[in-house]
Design goal:
single chain, alpha+beta, Trefoil (Acidic Fibroblast Growth Factor, subunit A), two-stranded antiparallel ribbon
């Protein structure tokens, strides 16, 4: 039997996970199948009801024993075709009570981890062990617990923080665990959209998580309906994020100048560096402007992450970086050969009104007023005293690398 830690989230709260027991230690709460064999259905059911009453009264509540009881009812009664209808109804009622209590208790514990304002020392869960499933046997119960926990904390934590915490709850490598992570992300995304919420930070993080899913080979093992829902979510992202995260390469267009940024050829600063410009003529785009985003994340104090990106020129395999010590070219954006790339090749990336913002050390990457010649414009980093996030010359859009698509890209 495959073991899946249904409450893997407790590891994040440093709660001790003990070994699960298959039978209860106390004689009054022993519900092993051997003990029940040979008893009439009515007596077995009465015995299980007594066990449930004892479990419900005990503090702290033992979820592990409740799960064993839930499964025993499921196998012994609720799936049995020869049982008396009244006994079946009583068994199903008992099973629903167990299901509701397990869901509430587990969801409360998970909410305590997702919501940093809730103390992590939930006494109800100090004795919680493992929840065993075989393939998808208990997947609906597990998902219902996760969805209930999300509902509990949604109004108390930023959506981007919840997305990251949900993503990091379950790092197991098996197919079922991956499916759980995907479905948790989709539930949060659908809740976000159904509420009509606006949060650029969340969309940026959700797109980042979609990229990780997109690049994971286990994506191909998802069942058809889930895969369809996943693809619908990807396609509903802002167009710029779809290209930035999900395409093998893209061009970057400046919204204010309506120009694309590219790496020059034959215009070197020195042996390691060459110029990067905006091409002034919007009717021309070529593969000099193709980029790939290599993303990483840095933890933030609130439990979320800050995204950093290294933009790699596909044609020349050179990183876009900020030149800080080149005299007249100080604070210009240039290209650095791969290898020992400088720290200034990593940019903070943010989303503002569906446009990408790149910055580092408090400076924004913007298309400047200064021209190199009639065809080329410098791209520089400016202090916030000169430009702000709302200035379109500092806003960038990822899109197709075709001139005929430039206008469409800039207006969607």
């Amino acid at each position: 039997m495959r073991s899946l830690l249904i409450l893997f989230f407790l590891t994040l709260a440093s709660v001790e996970i003990l070994a699960a027991k298959s039978a209860f230690s106390a004689a009054h709460t022993d519900i092993s199948t051997n003990l029940l064999q040979g008893l009439p259905n009515s007596e077995r059911l009465r015995f299980l009801e007594t066990v449930w009453n004892k479990l419900r009264e005990k503090s702290p509540f033992d979820v592990t024993k409740a799960l064993i009881l839930y499964r025993l009812l499921k196998v012994d009664f609720c799936n049995c075709r020869t049982i008396d209808p009244l006994e079946l109804q009583a068994a199903q009622t008992l099973q629903q009570e167990l299901l509701q209590e397990i869901t509430n208790r587990c969801a409360h514990a998970l909410a305590g981890v997702l919501n940093v304002e809730v103390p992590p020392d939930n006494s109800d869960f100090h004795n919680l062990l493992e929840f065993y499933v075989t393939d998808t046997q208990e997947l609906p119960l597990l998902l219902n617990i996760i969805y209930t926990a999300i509902d509990k904390v949604y109004n108390w934590q930023p959506s981007d923080v919840l997305a990251i915490r949900l993503w990091r709850l379950n790092q197991f490598s098996d197919r079922i665990s991956f499916s759980i992570r995907v479905q948790a992300q989709l539930y949060l995304y659908y809740k976000f959209n159904s509420r009509g919420d606006v949060n650029d930070d969340y969309l940026l993080i959700f797109g980042y998580n979609m990229q990780q899913i997109h690049n994971d080979p286990r994506q191909n093992q998802l069942e058809a309906n889930l895969k369809r829902r996943l693809n619908n979510a990807k396609s509903s992202l802002p167009s710029a994020l779809q290209y930035f995260y999900l395409k093998p390469n893209f061009c970057l267009y400046n919204k204010g100048r309506k120009e694309y940024i590219y790496t020059t050829e034959g215009m070197e600063i020195d042996g390691e560096r060459r110029f990067i410009f905006n091409w002034v003529d919007p009717s021309y785009v070529d593969d000099h402007g193709k980029w790939r985003a290599n993303l990483t994340d840095v933890p933030k104090p609130n439990g979320g992450v800050k995204l950093k990106v290294a933009l790699l020129s596909i044609k020349f395999y050179m990183y876009m970086y900020l030149e800080k010590d080149l005299g007249n070219y100080m604070d210009v954006v240039a290209a650095w050969r791969t290898g020992s790339a400088p720290a200034t090749s990593y940019w903070n990336v943010e989303l503002v009104n569906n446009e990408l913002i790149f910055s580092q050390d408090g400076k924004l990457m913007c298309a400047s007023d200064r021209l190199y010649d009639k065809d080329r414009r410098y791209v520089k980093a400016f202090d916030h005293s000169a430009y702000s996030y709302s200035d379109q010359v500092c806003q960038w859009i990822a899109g197709e690398c075709h001139a005929e698509d430039l206008e469409k890209t800039l207006t969607t």
